[in-house]
Amino acid sequence: MSVAIITDSNSGITQAEAKELGISVVPMPFYINDEVFYEDITMSQEEFYQYLAQDVDVKTSQPTPESLMNIWKNALKENDEVVYIPMSSGLSSSCHTAAMLAEEDEYEGRVHVVDNQRISVTQRQSAMDAYRMAEKGLDGAKIKEILLRDKMESSIYIMLDTLYYLKKGGRITPAAAAIGTLLKIRPVLQIQGEKLDAYTKVKTVKQGKTAMLKAVHKDMESRFGDPEGKNCHLAIAYTASPEEVEQFKAEVMEEFPNHTLEIDPLSLSVSCHIGPGALALAVSKYVDEAE
């Protein structure tokens, strides 16, 4: 039985990478001044940040039912099943929409929608895990079961450069943003499960990086029972400059010398809420389908 793996562009997988990996990627739509754009098709990362700098009205959206079902239909022409891994339901309603569509007669039992509470580099890792399991011959239902079983086995820690976009999106009050800016506070946020939540506050970039590295060490030891992280995957996500990313990469590799490191831009659905200049460190436990 052949299983197609599909995710959305919130995973950070580009259309070009998707072709190389054998994974399909649904482009997420954005509305800027009521004009629709599609991530990595009609809107690049660079163009997106140019719009943000102009302080225009940027809104995230979800794929239309028709566009999503067309992608499923095309995949099912050459495959028996589809495993679809959208962004976390805690961050978008697109997952619930997909789950309802998958209940239609044409897709029931053939399209498996996985809400494993991930986004960006951890969502990418889920798609890669699913592809590997499909290659090993697991069916769609089993792949979904394993991804849901391990859905909480990841974290993303994000250090922000500015509080402006959190204030603009209503996630903090203008007063809190003003005080934070005055005191030069940098929040470190966490995505672990459904929501984007506060993790800690720092005053310098160095302190923020240290906090994220310590948090990952703690996850490896306390949550995953793997102090050396032998069965953990590390990734950097960013909206920062390439120079900052390269410096952080060197620091992460010094801290975790025996690990490989995935590096991807943060998805635009997250970026519109946190703005430019952010650095993130993610850790995921490798999926063991034999458990």
Question: Could you please describe the fold and organization of this structure?
Answer:
The chain has 291 residues and is of the alpha/beta class. 41% of the residues lie in helices and 23% in strands. The chain contains 11 helices and 13 strands. Strands 10-9-8-13-11-12 form a 6-stranded mixed beta sheet, sandwiched between helices. β1 (3-8), α1 and β2 (24-26) form a beta-alpha-beta unit. It is globular. The model has no long low-confidence stretch (mean pLDDT 88).
Radius of gyration equals 19 Å
Secondary-structure element order, N to C: EHEEEHEHEHEHHEHHEEHEHEHE
**Unreliable segments (pLDDT under 50, ≥5 consecutive)?**
none
Overall structural class, as computed from helix and strand content, comes to alpha/beta
Helix count from the secondary structure assignment: 11
Helical residue percent?
40-55%
**Assembly of the depicted chains:** single chain
In short, what is this structure?
By secondary structure, this protein is of the alpha/beta class.
Key traits:
globular; alpha/beta; 4-stranded parallel sheet; 291 residues
Give a topology summary:
Blueprint: E1 3-8, H1 15-21, E2 24-26, E3 29-32, E4 35-38, H2 45-53, E5 58-60, H3 65-78, E6 81-85, H4 94-101, E7 111-113, H5 120-135, H6 140-149, E8 154-159, H7 164-168, H8 174-182, E9 186-191, E10 196-202, H9 205-223, E11 232-238, H10 242-255, E12 261-265, H11 268-274, E13 279-285
Parallel strand pairs: 1-2, 1-6, 6-7, 11-12
Antiparallel strand pairs: 3-4, 3-5, 8-9, 8-13, 9-10, 11-13
Helix pairs in contact: 5-6
